[in-house]
Amino acid sequence: MKGFSALFQPGNIGKLRLKNRLIMNAMGTVLVDSEGNPIERMFDYYRARARGGIGLITTQCASVSADGTPPFTWALYDDKFTPGLRSLVDVIHEQGVKVSIQLMHYGLLIIFGGFIPEGMSIKVPSITSWLTGDKPYEEMGEADIERYIEDFAEAARRAKEAGADAVELHACHGCLVSTFLSPVTNRRTDQYGGSVENRARFARRIVERIKEKAGEEFPVVVKLNGSDDIEGGITIDEVARQAAILEAAGADAISISSGLEFWTSLSIPCYAYPEGPMVTLAKKVKQAVGVPVITAGKISPELAEQIIRGGKVDFIGMGRPLLADPELPNKLREGRLEDICWCVYCNNCIRTEPGQGPCSVNPSLYREGKYPFPPAESPKKVIVAGGGIAGMQAAVLMAGRGHPVSLYERSNELGGQWNIAAATPGKKDYAAFTDYLRRSLDKSGVSVTLGTEVTKERVLEMKPDAVVVATGAVPRGLNVPGAIGRHVIQANDVIMGKVESKGKVVVIGGRFIGMEVAIWLAEQGKEVSLVTQAGLGENGYTLERMTYRTLVRRLIELRIPLYMHTPALEITESSVIIGWGAEVFFLPADTVILAVGAQSDNKLAQELKGVVSELYTIGDCVEPRDAASATYEAARLAAKI
Ligand SMILES: Cc1cc2nc3c(=O)[nH]c(=O)nc-3n(C[C@H](O)[C@H](O)[C@H](O)COP(=O)(O)O)c2cc1C
Fold it and tell me: Whose CA is nearest to atom 14 of ligand 1?
């Protein structure tokens, strides 16, 4: 057990006995059919996590009301959904693991997904000036409240009938119930608004009604926001009082999260947050209630052990770390820490754009049924050109299928552009992924050669059956006069410590790297401004919103001047000339840092056309994108080669 004995003590939620203190947090997936029933891939996904040694699985949220369920949402608003739920419960129970079903009405949270079906209104406690955009908001009347209370209770009854061990009431992050709890979203003047007690009335009545329908002994967990992470949001003292009200109503445990997913970023804290940003909040709630308290949010096993040992909370929720590695609890229990594929909190798992990989570090996420890949029918001699994460991942997976694989990297280090990411301030944990891939390469028997470039001649000499080109991308320059001056440097070189900025700095580029570099320099006390030809995070695929907001918030806190929709027209010795509307201005600059994207390095792929019978390209050399796409492409190739 090596150092994690507190985490592997059994514990209780009500009468429900759990084998350890680790709970899988609810995480929405789209592994459902258009009606809202689970599909086979959902069973595979949960089976893998149940096998991984977790004590309790909280399922993704199930939608309790027909009028609040967009397509491809897991639904539980009718008895017709009970058989699907029962199958899921059975899959988890077969592995000796308990299961709690998270129940939710989206309410305002539906806007986080960005898709509101025609005819569906967004139910809110009150219409406030914060509800922006041309959206179909609808203030709830008493009849809606009564109907939804019944919907939650009916869904809980179905969960119990399907054999689930508990339910969790989703009352955080800005879903319908949480918008009642918070003063920033609830400005009602009736018995459901105003005082702490009134705002808790809707949630309290739901818990009471669930207990009436599903029985006193059927455990109910309530997941609350410890903080809305926003000016005017709920305070921790109010949360503690509401938690006590819910305990009195019958709640068997309180889970503490935070943040409003449509406005803030704390609910799914990205790499830029310190460890365990919600633990102090959970500890305060624990002092106010007698039932167990659960908390999650970027908690490492070491911190988790400390928290449980110190009695700060009773159970640790784990979300993204289990997406990265479903076997994490088993590996912790067995002391196999070096086998763990760590989550780096890049938050690619919560992007909604189609066609991108769902996880930077785990290629099997949501495709668990396909793993491990079967042995290749006829093993091929494969050369991989490029030791970035696409090349490394593909090499490991192909070797796992029995192909003899040789990987060549032209620099003296594996990792490629991921090493730049890992060198970015605040992202040091990113190095865990390259360490993991390096260890996986060692174990898989791939022959790795550093400091050697793959060339056409080498390929002709080695006569491989297949070549996988994963040569990545290089930073883009800026096509304006003066952009190659000595004081014009690349953001990547600044991050890697190859060059230093001096004097007044202008960063050009408003996507993640530009924002990160500007923040880093401002934190060092440098005078920095940021220029971008579009808005922040525009021009290109949509940036993940939690990370985006975290960075934008920091830019604002640091009062970094932002020149948006402002193209850089020319760079002189002492300024960047910017176009501002129809006019031109000079922005003083001693150093200009370019963070204007990357371009594919596909020279080798061009050269090898017609030279080898099987030629594949993966990762950024196809088109610069993010790590999750590289990982996904590597796996797709390894499955078919
Ligand atoms: C992909 C994804 C989907 C999520 N969906 C839900 C959800 O449906 N209900 C919920 O209460 N929290 C949801 N969360 C939040 C997690 O339950 C958890 O509170 C959060 O990720 C912090 O824990 P972690 O740092 O261990 O990931 C989701 C998180 C992720 C990453």
Answer: 27
Burial class (CB in 10 A: 0-12, 13-18, 19+), 639: middle
Q: What is the CATH number of domain 488-596?
A: 3.50.50.60
Fold of 11-340: TIM Barrel (3.20.20)
State if residue 294 touches ligand 1 by the CB under 6 angstroms criterion: no
Number of helices (H) and strands (E), helices first, in the chain? Answer: 20, 27
CB 177 within 8 A of CB 107: yes
316 ligand 1 Cβ < 6 A: no
Q: How far apart are CA 279 and CA 285, in angstroms?
A: 10
Q: Going by CA atoms, what residue is nearest to atom 22 of ligand 1?
A: 297
Rounded to the nearest whole angstrom, what is the distance from the C-alpha of residue 468 to the centroid of ligand 1?
35
28 lines ligand 1 (CB under 6 A): yes
Probe ligand 1: pick from 25, 316, 350, max atoms within 8 Å of CB? 25
Model pLDDT for residues 564-610, shown as the tens digit of each residue: 999 999 999 999 999 999 999 999 999 999 999 999 999 999 999 99
Position 540 scores a pLDDT of 81
Residue-range domain boundaries for the chain:
11-340, 368-474+600-640, 488-596
Distance separating alpha carbons of residues 172 and 218, to the nearest angstrom: 21
For the segment 40-93, what is each residue's pLDDT rounded down to a tens digit? 999 999 999 999 999 999 999 999 999 988 888 999 999 999 999 999 999 999
For 368-474+600-640, CATH number? 3.40.50.720
- Report the atom number in ligand 1 closest to the C-alpha of 320: 27
321 CA: nearest ligand 1 atom: 26
Q: Taking the model in full, what pTM does it have?
A: 0.96
